[in-house]
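Blinded run. Sample ID left blank on purpose so nobody reads anything into the name before looking at the predicted structure. Input follows.
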Amino acid sequence: MAPPRLDPRSRPIFPPDAPPAPPQGWGLAELHAHTSASDGVPSPGDLVHRADALGLDVLAVTDHDTIDGALRARDIAAATNARVEVIVGMEITTRRQDHVVGLFLEHPVPIFRPLVETVAAIQAQGGLAIVAHPFLGVPTSISAKRLLRALEHVRFDGIEAENQYLRERTRARVRRFQEAHADRVGAAVGATDAHFGDLGRALTLFPGHTAADLRAAIGARATLPARGGLRHARPPLADHARNQFRSLVKLPVMRVRTLWRQRRTTTL
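Blinded prediction complete.
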């Protein structure tokens, strides 16, 4: 039996400027978080514990190019009777280095494939495809021009309109883009892209409390991106060093192995 749910407004991460709740209440979801399975600092178990302590209803574990950490986090949440419900996700690197977050995944999505093919692979297994940290002007962030081209061929399920790396000007630009192309780019969501266990810097508010409620809200474009109410402490230098080592050494090796397995599978 799961522990009783907390009053959302008693949770430290609840947005102080949130609008009045719908009849179902506001659920709190973190849709972009990393573990030590890729370049994050916390282990899957530590991340689940942190999410539970903060009062999150739903946590999407979205490691770079692997679902191993997400599967472990889901198992740990179930085994420890955690309040938080874990979604299996993955932040997928495409051929052009654009990043797409896949949610509600059953198995890994092939990496370094064209963007349109990546979105199709996510949705073919019943997952949701979310545009990750758009318009930042860096290789891992899709541009508005490339996203518009992609929308000629595929529909996304959502776009990160609130993210700790989006500055005010970029945030406003993403909001305008989402409003103009909502029928093809999907719901506006909030997601931290947490690497240090700093969950809830950016949140998705949704009517209800469960992962099924969240999925329905994304489909109905009834989500609300928001900034969380908790100020996290700066990560220590040791955590930054772990993050950089995993990003610059561990991830490239892991990706080479993944690409080798993909190639071997397609040639058999």
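Unblinding after everyone has recorded impressions. The beta strands are 26-33, 58-61, 85-88, 90-93, 99-103, 128-131, 158-162, 187-190, 202-207, 224-227.
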